Amino acid sequence: MTTTSPDGAFTLIVNGTLRPVVDAHPGESLLFVLRERLGLAGSKNACEEGECGSCTVRLDGETVCSCLVLAGAAAGRDVVTIEGLTMEAGVSAEPGLSPVQQAFLDAGAVQCGFCTPGLLMAIDALLDAESDPDDLTVREAISGNLCRCTGYGRILDAVDRAAAVRRAEVTP
Amino acid sequence: MTTIEAGISTSTGPRIGENASRPDGVPKVTGDFAFSSDLHHDRMLWGATLRSPHAAARILGIDVGPALAIDGVHAVLTHEDVPGRATYGLEHRDQPVLAADVVRYEGEPVAVVAADHPDTARCALAAIHVDWEPTEPLVDPALAEAAEPIHPDGNVIRRIHLRHGDQSAADQPDLVSVEGTYEVGMQDQAFLGPESGLAVPDDDGGVDLYVATQWLHVDRDQVAACLGLPDEKVRLTLAGVGGAFGAREDLSLHVHLCLLALRTGRPVKMSYGREESFHGHVHRHPARMWYRHHATSDGDLVRVEAHLLLDGGAYASSSGAVIANATCFAAGPYHVPSVEIEGVVVRTDNPPCGAMRGFGAVQTCFAHEAQMDRLADALGMDPVALRLRNALEPGDRLATGQVITGTLPVAEVLRACADHPSGAVGPDEPMARPGGAGRTADTEHVVRGEAVALGFKNLMFSEGFDDSSAARCVLHDGVATITCACAEVGQGFVTLVGQIAGEVLGVDEVILAPVETASIGSAGSTSASRQTWMSGGAVQLACVAVRRELLAGVAADHGVSADDLVLVDGRVISLPGDGSGDPDLSLDLSLEEVTVEPVEADVVHRHAPTSPLDADGQGDAHVSFAVSAHRAIVDVDPDLGLVRVVELTTAQDVGRVLHPLQALGQLEGGAAQGVGLAVMEEVQVANGHIRNASFTDYLIPTALDMPSLEVAALIEQPEPGAPFGAKGIGEPPCISSTAAVVGALRNATGLDLARVPVRPADIALAGQPEAEVS
């Protein structure tokens, strides 16, 4: 599939949908294009230097800081954002919330919420890779996601809850 | 444009004391919640700010011509374009909207631009030519008082000389005295949501500003004055706030955005990057604190002397309140008959400092708790026993002469924390050793330490400040709509509103109206642990007034006594009467049917008045107080100076728990900020220049740095005068945590460690010449 054209326009595949991008400046990050050109503001812009994880999306399945990815470099690749996490869940589970999203609410892991989308993406990826991670594994997996409100206690609790729910779903 | 939340509704739910759901929870986990940086308008321009590269300089001229000539640039504004008041500020309006002839700190705004794209705006900034004449910056706060004033208001922002009791009390023989000098570095609030906003001009010369802030109305007053507009032409609406912690009390981009929008006639959005954010808001004041404690050989405190010097940086911000807290609570939650504290906050060419969680009390807690440990050591006493022996209790006098009339369970908090069993295990797992994987210490070299610390602070604003919050409750068709300008910054006030309205009115559905200046009076600031009391109290009052009016109307309509009616689960029900109504009449009406015509109430809630401090720092200046305790257990690798906080335990004086999960979140989050100040967080300033304005170089705790927080006890002694008896709980967790962690590091290493954050070199290279350490 051709995803770039000679005039610099390109097409992203975001949450399973083809999204043409025209008039983008060559240096625009994937984060900027998602937020400002495609109306997907769920990925956050806390540092825009790859340190805080608030812009975490999945690119061909891998978690990346979308602030560090040139938008053009993501052309034709599979991008999943927090909006996609919600939509995916909408197909299979309760009204639109994935287990990890629901667990964040139940555990009190949401305060200001700015780090939340990035953390949800990182945790969802962790639980895809490991169904029952131990405490240190979880801490290591989310150590690239800064949270300034919670001190991480409720977030760690939410991971435990989400992991349990997901395990129960796959082993009925 | 992206719609601002039209209203947040809560369903029937848990009441006071239970875990209600956050009404903003679902949009926050789906990514739909609109933070201030998410705002978008199809016609919007992008704003950007030119900042001073110099800590001190004269501006000989500014040429904006080349910037204006760039295609896509719509406006370039300087101080000449500020139509109203040239300066703003929280306590003193001493800070220029845009610098005119001098700059006083690195990062001071000089010009602003509006352009069609952020890249264009950046090009425009680069094209503005400023003719600078750099001058020698004043960067040592110890020299500020004697130095040439760097501002027309002088270099001393505020001095308080507190004297309490017999000033010769330490002259008696056989006292044990300990002395120390302590330093606290400059901490950054490091909220994740950057300063951002959207200004939209109207057709009538006014402007709407959507912005993340802690106090809409005080922003509005300052913005309107600088724009030269009447208040009603400047309307502020709270946009989603990505954390605050004090850093959003002062204006940042507010006036700039409005100036650009009014000049261009277009909506303008601005969002700081992280580096700009470090330059764009105030920080926690660095402090140098000399202390001397005197006690009897039995361990009774006799006298505390201290000199506190805080660096306020270039502009006043809330420095006056910070030094007042530092001075008033300098001795900690202890009964001290004789006190002399001199607190001074000065102006320098360093970054401006102001509010941060626990303002003033964090700095002095680090010092007074180090002193208490030192005194215990000198006396040969157990440090917990020494603290218990001197613990303040209701009826005692503070150093300000004020008698504590509310609750203050100092001893209970301390005992609960200190006696809590520890679950700390050895550092077996490499990742859990100091330094973590890859820099793993040898287990046999790791030393462990433990310490307990107490923190103490006032709740709400002090010194006679006219503190209030306004709220409106409208009960219509069985639905309660609450209007209050309290800024939700993450703490969960929006949850509390539903709980309070549900508790008072028995309603199933509560809607929180948009938070804005146009529809309601000020709620005051979301700071100083005050909103649960002030705005929670306002919402409670408004709901109670509606209940009273509603029940009076129902009583009159049905010939019963209002005293016999209650609101339960969306119904008005009569209970057996006292004889004034018809005892046989059994009333059971739905709330919906009795509120077809809306019932509403507007209230302003105030706390009990306070007094200013007199010339000796004496007076009933504070409303209420809270105390917290932390116990830290740390592992240290003395060879590398690496540290791991293994366990953190806390107990806190909370009055009453209104929402257990949200309370826990405050305790955990505040402790993390305290751990950060103890071992890693400092804005490093060299000759006025910030050297680490990024999350690469300014480190905040990650999930690997924070231990789980053990809550030994939440001490619930309802506070008289407080709505539901609840004390504010936001600040204490980050007051005593820093002191406990560093106390444990001292316990492990035997070093003085008189400065935070404690750096690896402070441990590994201790005793070596300073030049090698730095």
Structure description:
The complex is a heterodimer of chains A (172) and B (774). Chain A has 172 residues and is α+β, with helices and mostly antiparallel strands. Chain A has two domains: 10-80, Beta-grasp domain (Ubiquitin-like (UB roll)); 86-170, DNA polymerase, domain 1. Chain A has helices spanning 30-37, 82-92, 99-107, 116-129, 135-141, 153-170; strands spanning 10-14, 17-21, 56-59, 62-65, 78-80. The longest helix of chain A has 18 residues, at 153-170. Chain A is globular and about 50 Å long. By secondary structure, chain B is of the alpha+beta class. Chain B has three domains: 45-136 and 194-241 and 248-280, Alpha-Beta Complex (Aldehyde Oxidoreductase, domain 3); 283-462 and 613-773, Aldehyde Oxidoreductase, domain 4; 468-606, Aldehyde oxidase/xanthine dehydrogenase, molybdopterin binding domain (Aldehyde Oxidoreductase, domain 4). Helix content of chain B is 25%, strand content 26%. Chain B is built from 18 helices and 34 strands. The longest helix of chain B has 28 residues, at 531-558. At the A-B interface, α1, α2, α3, α4 and α5 of A face α1 and α15 of B.
Short synopsis of the structure:
Chain A has 172 residues and is α+β, with helices and mostly antiparallel strands. Helix content of chain A is 39%, strand content 12%. Chain A starts with 9 loop residues before the first strand and ends with a helix.
How are helices and strands ordered from N to C of chain A? EEHEEEHHHHH
**Radius of gyration of chain B from CA coordinates:** 27 Å
How many individual helices of chain A?
Answer: 6
* Largest sheet: number of strands, sense, barrel closure of chain B: 7 strands, mixed
**Assigned CATH superfamily of the largest domain in chain A:** [2Fe-2S]-binding domain
Outline type of chain B: globular
Number of domains of chain B: 3
How many helix segments of chain B?
18
How large is the share of residues in beta strands of chain A? 5-15%
Shape of chain A: globular
Pair of chains with the largest interface and how many residues each contributes = A-B, 59 and 64 residues
CATH superfamily of the largest domain in chain B: Aldehyde oxidase/xanthine dehydrogenase, molybdopterin binding domain
